[in-house]
Design goal:
Layout: H1 3-24, E1 36-40, H2 47-50, E2 56-60, H3 61-69, H4 72-82, H5 84-94, H6 102-123
Helix pairs in contact: 1-6, 4-5
Bound molecules: zinc ion.
């Protein structure tokens, strides 16, 4: 992988995570407001859903790391709230052969930076 592509991925991950945590404010699976991270419903290996805001939620460090060993609590809550059909749609999406170009990844990073700043402004917060 080129250095530029790696940097683009890092950039998109950073802003996506900041946006998701700002949007949610608390852990999706236990409600804690401590040590929030960006929890992905599906592994970040799948670029097709890696920056999909419908497939990511803030999670505390503990729940996020437990998800790696046991996906059940996260999956169950998601399916209860969004339905099995939508879950299966996203799951299929992970396997779709979507090629994310470096340009597209950069664009996603910018998009989530913008969305993050929009949320900040809406809430009248300073970082
Ligand atoms: Zn938690």
């Amino acid at each position: 992988m080129s250095k530029e592509r790696k940097l683009a991925i890092k950039y998109a991950d950073t802003w996506f995570s900041k946006f998701i945590r700002m949007r949610d404010q608390k852990c999706y699976t236990c409600g804690s407001r401590q040590n929030l991270q960006c929890g992905h419903l599906f592994s970040r290996i799948f670029l097709a859903t890696r920056w999909n805001e419908e497939a990511a939620f803030a999670q505390c460090e503990r729940c996020n790391s437990e998800h790696e060993a046991n996906t059940e609590p996260f999956y169950k809550k998601f399916i209860d709230e969004n339905g099995l059909e939508f879950f299966e749609y996203l799951e299929r999406l992970t396997k779709s052969p979507i090629l994310k170009t470096e340009h597209e990844i950069r664009y996603l990073g910018k998009k989530f930076k913008y969305k993050y700043e929009e949320l900040l402004e809406e809430r009248g917060w300073n970082e």
